[in-house]
Amino acid sequence: MYFLLVLPLIVTGAISVHEGQKKECNVVPKNPYIQAGSDTRIVCDSSCVRGKVYWTLNNKKVVHESWTSAINSTHTMVTLRNVSVPQATVQCHQEHTGDILGGTIVRTYQKPSNVSCIWHYRNGSSLVVPELFTCTWEHHVHDQEKINYRYTVFGRSQLRASQLEICSSQNAKRCTSKNLSGYVSLVGNYRFNVTVRAETIGNNHWEVYSDPYEFNPRHILKIESPTLTLKAFSGYLLAEWDTSTTSDKHYCQVKYNEEVINKILEAGEKGTMTLKNVESCTYYKVSVRCAWEKAPWSEWSREETVLSQLNKRDVKLRLWRKVAEPDKNGARKVYAMWTEIPSACQGTFAYFIQQSVYREHEIQVDYSRTLCGNSTCAVIVSEDACRVKLTVFHNEALLAEDSVYVPAVGETGLPQVTNMQTSTLKGVIYVSWDAPSQLVRSYMIDWTHDGHRYHWKESNSTSAKLSGLPYKKPFNVTVTPLFDDKTGLGTQALQICTTVAAAANFSTVKVEVSDKSALVSWEMEQQDVCSGVIAHYIVFYGTEQGPQLNVTVNATQQEVLLKDLIPYTHYSMHVKAATLTGASESNVRHFNTKTFDPRFVTKLSVIGSVIIILVLSAGLCCTIQYRKFLMKPLPDPGLSSVALWPSGSHQKGMFPFRLFTYPSESLCARVYMDESRLTSAPDTSGPAFTAKPHKRADEHEEISTLSPSKECTTLLSEGSGQLSPYRSQGSVESPTQSTGKEFESLLPVKEQQLTASLAMYVTVDMFEHDQAG
Within the chain, which residue ranges are assigned CATH 2.60.40.10? Predict the structure, then answer.
C-alpha cells in the first residue's frame, strides 16, 4: 500500500529529472526486499529510445499482457504477483533490438514461524513461581548475503491490551527473559499470545512480524526435576521421588538401563515404582522426570546407581564333569565345572564336592567334603559308578546344590548319540546328531580348543549352535545324552576349526633380477591345523604403465622365473597363495631390471682377464729371452782370425782335434773341421768350412767324459803357451809337445786313438780381415 502511494511521486520525479538532464533509461526501484508471497511493481523509463519495450523475468520473456501496463509514452510498469522465490531478476528490453534498458533484483524475506515458549525454573531455584520464560522460533532467510537481524518477542494477555516486550536477541532464533516477576499477570492462569518481530540492522531496513501464537500457561510450564532415592532388594529395585507440584495430576517416566517405564500420579500421590526382572549382582542406573498434562517434560533427575542383590532363583550351577582315563589301579580324576556366581555379588561363598558311590545296587555316601574354588574342582573317584554333588553356601547359608552321574569303568548299556556332524560358518560352529533309542531328558554339549578351558551348554533338541568362539581355533565338541538319574556316554565329533584361514602368511619373498628376467622365490610361515591347504600360487607382476601380468605355479614349487621383461624398467610384483577357502597375499615388492645381462658382463670380464694374463705372460717371456740374448758373451770378430791345429801325423797320441767354444756353451755348440780339408795349401784363402764331428765305428760314449766346463778350461789353459786359439792363417804344427802331453793326461787312451781331425773357430769376416792384412 505504501509503495502504491509513493509510486506517482517516483514516476513524476523520474520524469522531471529526465526533462532537466540527458535522457537515460533505468528501472526503479533498485534491488527491493519484499515479503514472500506478496506483490510488487517495477517501472521502466524508456525515454532514451523510441518504440515499445518488453520485460523478462529470470531471462524469460513475460508474455502475460495483464502483468504489464504503460503509464505514459516513456514509462512502462510490470506487476509481479505472489512472489515466493528467494530472488528474481527483472529486466526491461527494447522491443526491436532486444537491448537491456535496465534491470533489478527482487529479493524476498519470510516472517518468523513455529514459535514455541516454555515457562520454567532456574536451576536450583526455590521459588514457587517459575522465573524464566524462553521462546524459540524459525526464520528462513534465502539471501546469500550476510544480513544481521534483531528479534523481539512481544506478549499480550487477555487482561492487558497493550503488548509487552518479553525478550530480544540478535541473529539467534532464541531468547530468554531471566526475570518474569513483572509479567506474572501476563502468564497467570489466563491465555496469552506471543509475536516475534524480525528487523534488519543496517542498510535496506525492513521488518516483519510473525503470526500470533496463543499459549495456555499450564501447557507451557516446565516443572522442576524430581529428587530420586533408590534401594536394592533381593530380586527387585525400589525407586522413590518427590516433585515440587503434587497438588495436580501429573505424569512421570522412570528410566533404568535404557528402559523407560511410564507412571501417572494423581494429585497428592507420592512417586514410587518397583523395578522387577533385574539380574542378580548387576549395577543399575536409574533416573526419573515428570510433567503436567500437555506440558513439556522436566529435566531428568540426577542419575542414581545401585547394585542389585543376589537372587537365589537366579543361581543355576549347571554342574558338569569331564572324566580322565583310569590309572593302573582303576582310580580316575574327575574335573567338575559349574557356572560361576558373579564376582560382583557381595558376601562370602563356599563350594564343596561330595561323592556317592553305587555298589551292589546301593548308594554309599561319602560324607567327607572337598573344598573347591569358584568354578572348577578336581576329585579322585574309584572305578565304580558314582554321583558327584556340588553344594554352595552363601554367608554360611545353603544357597544351591547340583549333582552329576559318573559311569563306572567299562559300564555297558548306556545310550549315546550317533551320526554326529559339525559345520562352521562365519566363526559359528553348528552341531547336529541323531538321538538314541531311549527316552532322553536333554543333551549336554561341551567344547574346548586347548583341553583345559571348557564351555558347555544344555539343549533339548538334536542340534546346537556354538557362537562367541575365538578366531581360527580348532575345537573338540562332545555331545552326551542326559536322563533323569543317569548320564549316557559322550560322543566326540571330528576336530573342527571356527574359521579356516586362506593360507599361512608369507615369511619372505626374494627377487634376483637380470636384464630380461627375474627369479622370484618365496617361503611360507609354518601352517597350523586351521590353515587352508594351498592349491597353487599366482605371481602378479607388471610395470606402472603396462598391464598386470600373472603366472600360476603349482603348490609344490616356490619359485618362478619371470621372462621377457624390459631392460632397465621398474616393476612391481606380489605373490598370492590360493586355497579352496580363500587366498593370502604377500606384500608388494618393487625391483628394476638391469641394463645388461650380469652373466654376459661376468663372462666378458673372465675372458678379458684371461687375455690380459696371456698377453702379460707372453710379454714377460719375450722380455726374459731378449735379456738373455743381450747378456750372452761374444768375441769381437774384428780381432779374430782362422787358426789351424796341428795334424795328427805330427803329434801322435794327442787329441785328434781342437775345440773352440764360448765359455758358456756346451759341446753341442762346437764347430769341427774335416781333416782332409786341413791339408790344403797354406797360401790358399780359407774357404767356408762345414765342420761336423765324426767317429769311428768302435767309438764309445765315454769319449766325452770331461764336463764342458772342465774341457773348456783345459783348452784355454793350453792356449796360455805358444799355442793360442787365435792364430795366423796357415797350417802350422805346434812347436811344443807339452800340449799333447797335457791332453794325454786329461783324456782316456781310446780318445787319443781317434782319427785326427782339426777344429776351428770361424767368423763371417775372418777372411775379409785376413785379406786386409
Answer: 2-109, 113-220, 223-307, 315-406, 418-497, 506-596
Number of other CB atoms surrounding residue 17 within 10 Å: 12
Any idea of the CA torsion for 76, 82, 86, 91, to the nearest 10 degrees?
Answer: -10
CATH superfamily placement of domain 418-497? Immunoglobulins (2.60.40.10)
In a 3-state reduction of DSSP, which class is residue 189?
Answer: coil
Containing 515, the helix (H) or strand (E) segment is none
Instruction: Assess contact for 333 and 379: CB atoms under 8 A.
Output: yes
CATH architecture for residues 506-596: Sandwich (2.60)
* Beta carbons of 725 and 660 less than 8 angstroms apart: yes
pLDDT score for 24:
81
Q: How far apart are CA 262 and CA 282, in angstroms?
A: 23
What's residue 14's pLDDT? 44
Report the alpha-carbon distance of residue 650 to residue 644 in Å, rounded: 13
In angstroms, the CA 119 to CA 561 distance is 84
Q: Is 503 exposed, middle or buried (0-12, 13-18, 19+ CB in 10 A)?
A: buried
Task: Give the pLDDT of residue 188.
Answer: 57
pLDDT reading at 20 higher than 50? no
Beta carbons within 10 angstroms of residue 264's beta carbon: 10
Assign 684 a pLDDT band (cuts: 50, 70, 90).
Answer: very low
676 pLDDT more than 50:
no
Q: Which CATH architecture has domain 315-406?
A: Sandwich (2.60)
Each residue's pLDDT tens digit, 505-543: 888 999 999 888 999 999 988 777 787 778 899 999 999
User: CATH code for 223-307?
Assistant: 2.60.40.10
β pairing state of 113-120 and 221-222: parallel
Confidence of residue 426 (pLDDT cuts 50, 70, 90): confident
Q: What CATH superfamily classification does 113-220 receive?
A: Immunoglobulins (2.60.40.10)
Residue 92: CB partners within 8 Å, gap ≥ 6? 25, 27, 44, 46, 53, 54, 55, 76, 100, 101, 102, 103
Q: What element of type H or E holds 2?
A: helix 2-20
ω into residue 474 within 30 of 0, thus cis?
no
Mean pLDDT across the chain: 78
Helix (H) or strand (E) holding 753: none
Question: Exposed, middle or buried by CB within 10 Å (0-12, 13-18, 19+), for 383?
Answer: middle
Higher pLDDT, 619 or 725: 619
Burial class (CB in 10 A: 0-12, 13-18, 19+), 61: exposed
Chain centroid to CA 232: how far? 50
CA angle 708–712–717, rounded 5-degree value: 150
Answer yes or no: CATH 3.40.50.720 is held by domain 2-109.
no
DSSP 670: -
Whole-angstrom distance, CA of residue 248 vs CA of residue 279: 36
pLDDT at 759 over 50: no
pLDDT in tens, 541-572: 999 888 889 999 998 889 999 999 999 899 99
